[in-house]
Amino acid sequence: MTSVSSSPSLHTSHLASQSAEGFADVLVGLQYGDEGKAKIIDALAPRYDVIARFNGGANAGHTIDTPSGRIALKQLPSGVFHPHATLYIGSGCALNPWKLANEIERLREMGISLEGRLHISARAALVQPHHIAMDRRGSGTIGTTGNGIGPCYADRAMRVRNDTRVNLMLGDLLKNEADTITSMRDVLTRMINAEGGTSPWIAEMSDMLLGLPKVTQTLRGYIEPDRGWLTDRVKDGANVLFEGAQSVLLDVVDGSQPYVTSSHTVPAYAYVGGDLSPKYHRRTIGVAKAIMSRVGRGPFPSELGGERSAQYCHGASQSHVGAAEEQVRYSPDELLRSNDPFDVGTALRMLTGEYGTGTGRPRRIGMLDLAQLREVIKAHAVDCVYLNKVDCLTHYFHSAYQGVPMRVHPDVLSSEVMPDVMIYPGLNERSLTLGREGTLDAAMHGFVDFVERHIGAPLAGIGLGPERASLISLAEHDPAPAVSASPHV
Ligand code: IMP
């Protein structure tokens, strides 16, 4: 029987000797984002000294419930609530300074000070008002989050437009605030004039520029001009956990264009956008979820209801139909019993709360795609995987499937007739209850073995509920074991 513990064992990396160098692990989502990465980082954070972001910006996000209330964080790394952890935001990120200052202020009001704990690369790209305006106007085709991330990265590569520098960085606000704001205003004004001065967002964008000096004041103490800051920490023995935003399948090059985000989300990029040499890489940790989801457009091979589901969710997000509206319109228990996969997908969305964190958009729902996971894990040499939302698979027992439907890779099956989708019958509600209590029975053990065989990597843990204690660690696949190269664990 697999040995389990309800929380990963702790290592005292930050207490270790000062002499030896540290290492970095990279944690990434393996599907289409929203796999529950923050929850895993929350569990792993005590083992690391620094939690670092290396890509994306306010298009990511996680909501955290705290004793002082609920807070939605978009740009700060997930380790905020672990006071020992230092936080780093690397040069690969595209930052919205207004929203970042707001996150810092909200935390301060909750009694959490980031002073001395948060370091933001001065070379991180600055999201400017015209980026947000451009993204909102053109977001329909891809279904972007409208945060200006794509136009910001495009301007980073463009460098200069109409003789005006457009690749502004966070450090520019410190070096020359007045020129930086003038530059932003010039580009914005040119855009407003080109559109005949009728754009609905003019007042909002002008207000943003007016508020920028106050925002700079808030951020000033956190902006890190030293390019080697993280390297020096690691040389001094610090262990780093890189936290990927979005997911590997949304990578700007590796994903299915154009339905991707605009940054590199693959683990290798952690060492570019996170400002550290790959020499320090140790493990790649993947996070997936058993009820798959995707927001925005693009291919989703295991989508329940296929193109109909994609169309429905696109329409719903355009007309602002979210959880509340669906609850009024549909009965999830009835839909679950339908023979139509589209209905089952809708039911699963409602029963498992799959709506966008920031946008409230209904997420497209799919079966667990083991074939796809296998390819992603192989491509990025993922060492181990956390599988979230395994408890949610019980809903399938009440559906016409009467088991868990999963997409599987033909090569892994021994039979001559190779089905694309197979129904896994062996899991039951009792196994899940026992699992939550810390015991994996034969049925759950069988499920874990089945998944591992199909994805070609060990499961480090399974999520059996939303609470912290329901993340069951499969101890023999601990992603951060002590290694002889580092005395820090
Ligand atoms: P953008 O990143 O806002 O440009 O959006 C590009 C695509 O990535 C859209 O389909 C978004 O819905 C998707 N996307 C961006 N960030 C996330 C995320 O954090 N989770 C899931 N999907 C995301």
TrEMBL record:
The UniProt note on the cofactor reads as follows: Binds 1 Mg(2+) ion per subunit.
**Which branch of life, at top level?**
Bacteria
Q: What is its main location?
A: cytoplasm
Q: Does the keyword Magnesium apply?
A: yes
Query: Any idea which positions bind Mg(2+)?
Result: D34, G61
GO terms, biological process: 'de novo' AMP biosynthetic process; IMP metabolic process
Q: What is the main EC category here?
A: ligase
The EC number(s) given in the record are 6.3.4.4
Q: Name one GO cellular component term.
A: cytoplasm
| CDD domains xrefs | AdSS (cd03108)
User: Which cofactors does it use?
Assistant: Mg(2+)
Keyword Ion transport part of the UniProt annotation = no
Identify the Pfam families for this entry.
Answer: Adenylsucc_synt (PF00709)
Question: Active site at which residues?
Answer: D34, H62
Which reaction(s) are listed as its catalytic activity?
Answer: IMP + L-aspartate + GTP = N(6)-(1,2-dicarboxyethyl)-AMP + GDP + phosphate + 2 H(+)
Q: What does this protein do?
A: Plays an important role in the de novo pathway of purine nucleotide biosynthesis. Catalyzes the first committed step in the biosynthesis of AMP from IMP.
This protein's name: Adenylosuccinate synthetase
Source species, please? Pandoraea horticolens
Starting at the broadest rank, the lineage of the source organism is: Bacteria, Pseudomonadati, Pseudomonadota, Betaproteobacteria, Burkholderiales
